[in-house]
Amino acid sequence: MSTAQNLVLAGIDGSSLTNAVCDYAAWIAQKVDAPLKLLHTIDHHPEATDHTDLTGNIGIDSRDHLMDELTQLEQQRSKLRLQQGKQLLQAARERVMQAGVIDPITNQRHGSLVESLIELENDLRVLVIGVRGKVHDNQPDKIGAKLESIIRSLHKPILVVNTEFKQPERIMLAYDGSQAAEKALEMVVNSPLYKGLTCHLVCVSKDEGKGQLLEVAANKLKLAGGIEVIAKKLIGKPEQVLSEYQDQKGIDMIVMGAFGHTRVRDWLLGSFTVKMLTHSHKPLLLLR
Asked: E strand or H helix at 20, and its extent?
């Protein structure tokens, strides 16, 4: 039975990926029988405030009048942002309901997205978010300015969406025998999300011993039942080989384990993950 501590949370901001985020979140919520919450945050950036020095040569009365006008303008902007957010959430709610979600929850919060997610973390099962928001909407080679902080801060699975929704049929689990990869494997084994899918278990390594680990991992997946398993060991640069394999096999979603909290920043800044986030054509599910 689903509980409030089992939420699928979709973070939306009106960017071009908003509909896809809603669609993937709806798919996950129904697959794992969990409630869906749609979140929009209104972040009052300090840099949005006009810091122009108004204490120059203009008269005091003129300065006070100008400050009053600026204050009124900011109040109007805040009201508009609030209204736009409500409209965005309503449209998103209607979309996920059309996809089959029952009674989705909407939540509009003031403040930073990262801080809001940290506050909601205990209730999360998985976060669904776009690889980039409105700021980088027209820059496909960029990842969102807040994405690194989100991944570094949260200890829950995060689906990073980068394309229009396609119901996943084939997933690729990047496996290297590490502690993070083993934890990701266990999560795939135990979650209803992956039942009925084909899982390509792929290891990129020159180490012959990794082949044995790959075989053991494949057997774990097979014993779980409900998942068709294809195990493959490849050689080359991991990000390049995995991207090529993804294209060749028509992979719909990539699943990866993330390092522990103290290493997430170093991991994210490493070339492998950055390239996977920026160049992968399919959503990336980071398991923690």
From this structure: helix 18-32
Rg of the chain, C-alpha, whole Å = 22
* CA-CA-CA-CA torsion sign (95, 97, 99, 105): positive
47 conformational bin, left if phi > 0, alpha if psi -120 to 50, beta if neither: alpha
Kindly state whether residue 205 falls inside one of the protein's structural domains.
Answer: yes
Amino acid occupying residue 219: N
Strand pairing report for 124-130 and 158-161: parallel
| Domain termination residue (choose one: 120, 143, 161) | 161
Q: What is the DSSP letter of 92?
A: H
In this structure, the dihedral spanned by the alpha carbons of residues 239, 244, 249 and 252, taken in order and rounded to 10 degrees, is 50
The reply to whether 176 and 156 lie within a common domain is no
Per-residue pLDDT tens digits for 155-184 = 999 999 999 999 999 999 999 888 888 989
Query: What single letter denotes the amino acid at residue 174?
Result: A
Task: Name the DSSP class of 138.
Answer: T
- pLDDT of 190-239, one tens digit each? 999 999 999 999 999 988 888 899 999 999 999 999 999 999 999 998 88
pTM of the model: 0.86
